């Protein structure tokens, strides 16, 4: 992994801290507080919308738009994790556990059960 990417991954951790800190803030001044106050279904809907918008931008080959939509998707996913009470660290831990395991091998092992 390149150093600039490692540095920028810190931004995701910072974002998660900010989202947690927005709990209980005024929905008048914080979009995050507004989303959190609207509950899990609203947050989940936003993730679905942003995921589709990112996918469409990718299919169109519009990388500038994909960058914006992917950032929206990360943000809304972090909000969804927060409202679900699931720490981002747990998701990163799950990804870490998968490092070194081929997705094809993992899928094949599932079929044997
Ligand atoms: N990264 C983001 C971020 N990405 C996208 N958005 C907002 O997400 C919304 C998505 O756009 P839409 O057009 O889908 O929104 P909309 O139609 O108004 O939304 P709904 O009516 O469907 O709720 C916009 O209002 C964006 O500004 C974000 N809002 C906040 N953050 C981060 O969260 C921090 C805290 O923000 P506040 O909670 O607003 O203080 C910010 O400093 C940023 O770091």
UniProtKB/TrEMBL annotation:
Keywords: Hydrolase. It is an enzyme of class 3 (hydrolase). Its EC number is 3.6.1.31. It comes from the Bacteria. This is Phosphoribosyl-ATP diphosphatase. It comes from Taklimakanibacter albus.
């Amino acid at each position: 992994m390149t150093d600039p990417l490692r540095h920028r991954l810190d931004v995701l951790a910072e974002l998660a801290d900010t989202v947690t800190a927005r709990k209980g803030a005024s929905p008048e001044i914080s979009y995050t507080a507004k989303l959190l106050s609207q509950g899990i279904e609203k947050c989940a809907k936003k993730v679905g919308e942003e995921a589709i918008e990112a996918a469409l931008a990718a299919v169109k080959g519009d990388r500038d738009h994909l960058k914006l939509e992917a950032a929206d998707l990360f943000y809304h996913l972090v909000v969804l994790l927060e409202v679900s009470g699931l720490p981002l660290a747990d998701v990163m831990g799950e990804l870490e556990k998968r490092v070194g395991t081929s997705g094809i091998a993992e899928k094949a092992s599932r079929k044997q059960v």
